[in-house]
Amino acid sequence: MRRLSLLLAVLAVISLGCSRRAAAPVARRTVAEAREQTSASCAACHKEVHAAWSGTDHALANRPVAARDREAFTVATAITGGASHFTLEWRDDKPAMIDATSTAGAGATPTRHEPTLVLGAKPLWQPLIPTGNGRWQPSDMAFDPAKKEWFNIFGDEQRRAGEWGHWTGRGMNWNSMCAHCHMTGYQKNYSPATDSYASTWVEHGVGCIQCHGAMPSDHQTPKPKTQTPTSPPPKSTATFAADRARQMQTCAPCHARNEPLTANFQPGDNYHDHFRVTLPVEPNVFFPDGQQRDEDFNFSSVLLSRMGHAGVTCLDCHDAHTTKTLFPATDNRLCLRCHTAPTPAFPKAPVIDPLAHSHHAAGSTGGQCVSCHMPTTTYMQRAPRHDHGWLKPDPLLTKELGIPNACNRCHTDRPVDWAIEKTTAWFGAKLDSHQRARTRAVAAAQARQPAALAPLLAALAKEEVPAWRATLLELAAPYLDAAPEATTAARAALAAPDPLERAAAVRALASHPEHLPLLRPLLSDPVRLVRLDAAWALSSTLDATSPARAELDAYFALSADQPGGRLRIGQDLANRNRHTEAETEMRRAAEWDPYSPGVREALGFVLNARGQPREAAAQFFRAAQLQPADAPAAYRAALAFAEAGQLPDAELAFRQTLERDANFDRAWYNLGLLLAQTNRLADSVAALKKAESLAPRTADYPYALATVLLRMGDREAATAAARRALAIDPAHAQAAELMRGR
């Protein structure tokens, strides 16, 4: 960051160099402070640019309700993709949405909502409904301006009132979840004391200064031609036009799935000082090859791509003001600008003949670069978006792992084996690439397969893309206890050049107390993302007056209006043994998101630490019921009930665990112990034998069986079981003692 600051200072001096008298340094203003600098004021000097921007999705990203919306609220519209619960009307030049689902009992009056703002433009927009305390909520009913019909953005999915993701919930709150990307100079201004917002902004939509930065306060329009200016008007101190990476990082905050680290990102800032970008660690977010699965937007994909690693940025393909691609996306000239012949900017870009490469006819869908390398996925029912990972289609991975491929997305009438045969004939060994090996490794690690570590480390050794290196390191974290080579890789990455990789190494080592001293120097890392991850890992030892604690607390406060933020605050308090305060925060999180199993489990751990085992067990059991297919969740509830002395409830939860996963050996073992404790010895023997059959190399299982058999008077079988335990673990003292006492 220091190098950028020095560069900006030099640029400011150069821009003023022709002045007759040196001017005082101009302090950099934030976008939110430049309240007079609207896009309309910029238009006075930048008419052509303003005209190109007007009418774009950026310009119309958010706006007040206007007369032109009358048609949407009065036209006979079709409701598609889910049942409508709103009746629409336009009265006294204002729209209204009457919510039939709010009716409570016969004769009750449905709730009448009056939207005041509109979120988005095309291919859909949503009415924004004020709900009190400064809040706006986007309706789940959206309008398609092309088809002139309303539809439910959740499709046929039914979301319950009270859910975090219901249209009235905090997951759909405009102030917290939408406005920072749809407004210019937005400030959330949340008050934890009153749970309310006093949000402010410079203008609706994404205006000029949101991307270019605020001009100095004395920035002025040129003097009339009849006057001679005394000096050129000062330029913005946020100049970063020559820095391609910072240009793209200015687009990234709103074109990435990410977590804000601060509320004060300014154009030209380092993205990683202000955001944590989402990487393909969790299987429900990205596919293992990096293709977008959930609504991930584009920046993660670019970071993960070879093209992004080579330096390709948003503005290589998109016009910044019209937002359109430089050629239509279906026109191969967009890609062939770099892939026809090496260019000075991208000298290593391979030369590609579209006909020979695609094996499809010129002008056909299959002959378009984007069809194969940028397939589309539709989000919110009506918003198709191109994947920006530029991956190779690989039908073999569809067969192995269920990952979609571009061939079968188009040829829906053909089986996967047909696509495998075709691509193998056309490209042969080229498909058996690092991309394929890495994908298999990621899929195995996401599934927590014991054999995943070796391919993960092999992929890491070959990987050049920092975002993928960070992903592989984070996926290797669960293996650190049993694999010294994984620990070595994580420790080495603490000094990696890229902040994503350093941060991933911190997170990988954070859960291992013996490695925590290695993280302390990272509290002074030049990038906030890394500093925060190190501070979070060391939170229990941070001095209350240290810069690291202040930065960490500011990060926590940023999301105090969301259940996840309250949970994080509670976890930090628990780390510092402030369990009473931690319980308060976690109960607030559970109140705001009552259907989150993770919140319930975290609260259970805190209650247990406070000496309230029965209350803790109830929270663990509630978490298990909220995820009815999760066997480990039911197992944790069973252990909590057992610790609380609630043995019938513990037995019920153990049996629920085994209904969910009949091969859960530890659940069979613990059920066997419980049955022995309640004198159902024959049933206990059956459960313990099942545990031993599932995990024959675990010495505790035959030892426990031996103790039960001994109670039943079967000394011969007990001795045999004890011998099996000692054969597995000759140092098993209890089994040895049993043998001596037989």
Describe what you observe in this structure.
- The protein is of the alpha+beta class and 742 residues long.
- It contains 35 helices and 18 strands.
- A four-stranded antiparallel beta sheet has the order 1-6-7-8, with no helix packed on it. Strands 2-10-9 form a three-stranded mixed beta sheet, with no helix packed on it. Strands 3-4-5 form a three-stranded antiparallel beta sheet.
- α17 (434-446) packs antiparallel against α18, α27 runs antiparallel to α28 (613-626) and α31 (665-677) packs antiparallel against α32 (681-694).
- The longest helix is centred in the N-terminal third of the chain and has 14 residues, at 2-15.
- It is globular and about 95 Å long.
- It starts with a helix and ends with a helix.
- Mean pLDDT is 91; it is low at 1-26 and 223-237.
Assign an overall shape.
globular
Portion of residues within helices: 40-55%
Query: Measured on Cα atoms, how large is the radius of gyration?
Result: 30 Å
Number of helix segments?
35
Across the major sheet, the strand order is 1-6-7-8
How far is the first residue's CA from the last residue's CA?
72 Å
Strand segment count: 18
Secondary structure class reads alpha+beta
The average pLDDT value, as a whole number, equals 91
The proportion of residues in beta strands is 5-15%
Task: Supply database-style keywords.
alpha+beta, four-stranded antiparallel β-sheet, three-stranded mixed β-sheet, disordered N terminus
